[in-house]
Amino acid sequence: MAPVVRTSSPAPRSCAATATCTFSSSSTISTRARAAVFAVIKSSCVPMESKRMQFSVLGPLQVRPSRDTRVEPRATKPGALLAVLLLNANAWVSVDQLIGAIWHEQAVPASAVRNLRSYVWQLRRSLGERLEGGPCGYRLRVCPGERDSDQVERLAESARSAMAAGEYETAAERLSGALSLWRGEPFEGLVFEAATAAATRLNELRREVNHLLADACLELGRTSEATRLLRELTEREPWCESSWARLVLALHQAGRTDEALAAFERIRKLLLDELGVGPGPELAAAQRKVLHGRKTMSTTKLSLVVGGRPAPAHAEIDTLLASARHEVLIMSDGPGSGPIDALRRIARTGLHPGVRYRVLCPDSARLSSALRTLSLAGADVRTDAEVPMQALVIDRGSALLPADRESTGYQAGAAVFRLPGVVTATVGLFERIWQGAVPLLPSEPAEAGDGVLTRRERDLLALLCSGSTDESAAARLGISVRTVRRMVADIMNRLGARSRFQAGVKAADRGWLMDMAG
């Protein structure tokens, strides 16, 4: 006969306590045997926290008691019971409250309490001791991070912090991970009041995560991904003006101004025809920005800084650098090279407070004093095997690019572009190289005799010398790829090496590789 859970029964005792009561009342079992059996039972009583479960509410309700087991309540009423318990996780829920949710659209039958106990028994087959009964009703014990909705909120909060710190790639990864947890509508198929309210709140969170991801993609220059994401969002929620405003601005940033204005006109007509209202302040502001940008571009699509006139050239580029308020991106061949020569200009004027400077240079310039001075001053400096072009981007609104004599009619100089498409493409190129470049740590190279490797550095060198990639070395050592690159950068700094190849030669000269071979 199947066990029946009674609301008046006390909370279940632990396995060890039950075993103590059972064996203390038996006189036919020896003390040694009793102790042995008790030890076996006690060892099987794993604390709740070590038996991780996964509770999924972002779609049809789902429970994973283990990695390979998935349970979905097939009937609506057991599903409603599970939903109420999850919405009130770790709190006692009264029998009346549970009955009200389960029979919310119909008269409560005389057998409601008996039926409730039957549903509890069905769930307990999957949930075990997690589902408790007591004089107050029932409660479901849930550990932190076991509900997918909690995971989404944690990832969203972490992504907000990353974006505030300018770490847009990290933010995009976390936001994509959050969106991947959705399997459909939250609490799908359940329409009682508490479930509907929770679903509304979670859908608002989903919209916010989508908006944040689109913003991060735009910051990274991935305009096509941002526009695709926002188009999908406007199709799913056609009345959300905030999504439409972001789509208008994303299309404008991608250089697709006509499409941006067409998108605005589409939502304006939809609001007028269906609701009888005009665009709200956010949407109207997006349209004004696009129109202002188009007017500006029609008169000043680019301005030339002519290399044949040094004084005006220096003055205009210096003025552009001084106008930065948030971020300056620099791609350079090294100090003293090309018409832009951003490194020497910044060295002369200094870093402006509150502005983030990110500098990309080739490995050949790694040991230059200008780079080291910038790094010590607070700039983020990285080097890569090759930097394909010179560029200077100010606040992601202006891009300064080299302009040769054929394109300008003057001696080689530089051109300031304010076209969103040009700026976005330049930022995208910078971000792609930046992710794989090696950081220049703000520390002086070690002296020749200061050649002590940590155990992890020795292991890393051994893996790299055997032909491992950064990714495979990171997996073998249990660290991130970024940590691997930072460790390599530190070793290069200590060796005074301009490239990984030169670092290998110098490491061999110091006997580091011979030590590992031995």
Automatic annotation (TrEMBL):
Tagged with keyword Transcription regulation: yes
Taxonomic superkingdom: Bacteria
Keyword terms, alphabetized: DNA-binding, Transcription, Transcription regulation
Coiled coil: none
Domain HTH luxR-type span(s) in chain numbering: 446-511
Biological processes per GO annotation: phosphorelay signal transduction system; regulation of DNA-templated transcription
GO MF: DNA binding
Pfam families the record matches: BTAD, GerE
InterPro entries, per the entry: AfsR-DnrI-RedD_regulator, BTAD, OmpR/PhoB-type_DNA-bd, Sig_transdc_resp-reg_C-effctor, TPR-like_helical_dom_sf, Tscrpt_reg_LuxR_C, WH-like_DNA-bd_sf
SUPFAM superfamilies found in the cross-reference section: C-terminal effector domain of the bipartite response regulators, TPR-like
The keyword Zinc appears for this protein: no
Gene3D superfamilies in alphabetical order: Tetratricopeptide repeat domain, Winged helix-like DNA-binding domain superfamily/Winged helix DNA-binding domain
SMART domains membership: BTAD (SM01043), HTH_LUXR (SM00421), Trans_reg_C (SM00862)
PROSITE patterns named among the record's database cross-references: HTH_LUXR_2 (PS50043)
CDD domains: BTAD, LuxR_C_like
Similarity comment: family membership: Belongs to the AfsR/DnrI/RedD regulatory family.
PANTHER family associated with the record: TRANSCRIPTIONAL REGULATOR REDD, TRANSCRIPTIONAL REGULATOR REDD-RELATED
UniProt protein name: HTH luxR-type domain-containing protein
